[in-house]
Automatic annotation (TrEMBL):
It holds the Pfam family EPSP_synthase. 3-phosphoshikimate binds at residues 23-24, 28, 160-162, 188, 305, 332. Residues 10-411 form the Enolpyruvate transferase domain. Belongs to the EPSP synthase family. The lineage of its organism: Bacteria, Thermotogati, Synergistota, Synergistia, Synergistales. It comes from Cloacibacillus porcorum. This is 3-phosphoshikimate 1-carboxyvinyltransferase.
């Protein structure tokens, strides 16, 4: 797809947005619905990443139909013998969630774009090597062949929770019990809870076990995914952009979010409050009130997707903010730590990039100019929110990359009163 730049004229943003369906839950519920067959998922997110998951599930032999944002899956008659490559686009979740499900004895190949195939897969590589499952990672594909068997899986918890979620989709239907032992500090834990919540909707269970040595998941075998009709709740990782925009601008009211959500990124409300903002529920809408922000220290290890927008908020807050435990941000769609450090510095902010932290001395104001999205949807959307508070126009080099998670982002930006022009091709 051609890169299309966007030039934003600074304007305070305000307004009401119906928040799109959660990307994380859309992946999970689509996979469970495919495994169960005869199921419905209402309000499926229609981003490029979710389309990649549906495409790859079809490639694995799951029959499904998408009518608008309603996904309907059919009974699985047989597993596909088709071994055409499974294209995961740029979606880490798609790739890591589906790898264990593809271990059905056939030779399978996964492909992808951008940085996807260079994002780490070592945890799978090591686990599979121990089990004599073939796993080859090349620059432009991953090939695997073998059968997943139940048992004990020892896995790091500080690379990506997506490996653990991936195993959780595949292990329950095997013919014996399994256990996943987490051998390090566990980061992004809430995403594993989202996986457990999705499994539970389809009658599949796995239990946490905590002890002094750490935590583990016990997964009974011989389970079946039961057909279900489910709906996807609103996306807090996406809502974070509009809460930030409303706080820096003229306020925001967001609908479609679940008050008692298990999404880790629901923590954005508390983090904004910690920075001095007023964020509160009124009925079923979450409101962000225009507020002056102050710097603070935030551990982003459990909520990595909030990092780019927190960095923007830090640049607009009085005083110093430290975003710590951010090393894993380097292995997302871009090196998000380096990307935010470089782009905020280009806008005039005082930033210091550490190996696993970002320190921002805020309050100096941001100027416009040119910035790069690093082909990363969350960097692009964060810079677009930053642009609303800049002293001059800001041109971002790649407007289309937002489609990875949020195809409606620019429409929403306009609905919030934002003013921008795109390269002709995009309009
Ligand atoms: O399971 C998920 O839906 C996700 C888990 C997180 O990844 P890590 O577990 O690699 O931090 C997050 O960054 C990603 O956007 C979505
Ligand atoms: C990191 C992300 O997604 P994934 O890991 O699924 O590519 C994201 O959406 O920010």
């Amino acid at each position: 797809m051609k890169n299309v730049s966007v030039t934003i004229t600074p304007k305070p943003l305000s307004g009401e947005i119906k928040i799109m369906p959660s990307k994380s839950m859309s992946h999970r519920l689509a996979i469970c619905a495919a495994l169960a067959g005869d199921s419905r998922v209402r309000f499926l997110g229609l981003s490029e990443d979710i389309m990649a998951t549906c495409r790859a599930l079809r490639g694995l032999g799951c029959e499904m139909e998408l009518k608008g944002d309603m996904l309907a899956t059919r009974s699985k008659k047989s597993v596909s013998n088709d071994t055409a490559p499974l294209d995961c686009g740029e979606s880490g979740s798609t790739l890591r969630f589906l790898i264990p499900l593809a271990l059905d004895g056939r030779r399978r190949r996964f492909t992808g774009r951008g940085r996807l195939l260079s994002r780490p897969q070592e945890e799978y590589a090591r686990l599979f090597a121990e089990r004599e499952i073939e796993f080859i990672q090349k620059e432009d594909y991953i090939e695997l062949c073998g059968r997943l068997r139940p048992g004990l899986f020892k896995i790091r918890g500080d690379v990506s929770s997506q490996f653990i979620s991936g195993l959780l989709f595949a292990l329950p239907t095997l013919g014996g019990d399994s256990r996943i032992e987490i051998t390090t500090r566990l980061e992004s834990r809430s995403y594993i809870d989202l996986t457990l919540a999705a499994l539970a909707e389809f009658g599949v269970s796995a239990e946490w076990e905590e002890n002094k040595r750490g935590c583990a998941l016990n997964i009974p075998g011989n389970q079946r995914f039961s057909p279900a009709a489910v709906s996807v709740e609103g996306d807090f990782s996406h809502a974070a952009f509009w809460l930030a925009a409303g706080t820096l601008g003229g306020g925001a009211a967001l609908s479609g979010l679940k008050k008692e959500s298990k999404q880790g990124d629901a923590k954005i409300a508390e983090l904004l409050r910690r920075m001095g903002a007023t964020v509160e529920w009124s009925g079923d809408k979450l409101h962000a009130v225009p507020s002056k922000l102050r710097g603070t220290e935030i551990d982003v290890s459990q909520t990595p997707d909030l990092f780019p927008i927190l960095a923007v908020l830090a640049a607009c807050a009085e005083g110093e903010t430290r975003l710590i435990n951010a090393a894993r941000l380097r292995i997302k769609e871009s090196d998000r730590l380096a990307a935010m450090a470089a782009e905020l510095a280009a806008l005039g902010a005082e930033v210091k990039e550490g190996t696993d932290s970002l320190t921002v001395a805020g309050g100096g104001g941001l100027r416009g100019g040119a910035a790069s999205a690093h082909n990363d949807h969350r960097i692009a959307m964060s810079l677009a929110v930053a642009a609303s508070a800049c002293g001059g126009e800001l041109t971002i080099d790649d407007a289309n990359c937002v489609k990875k998670s949020a195809p409606g982002f620019w429409k929403e930006y306009r609905a919030m009163g934002g003013s921008f022009v795109m390269d002709k091709e995009a309009q």
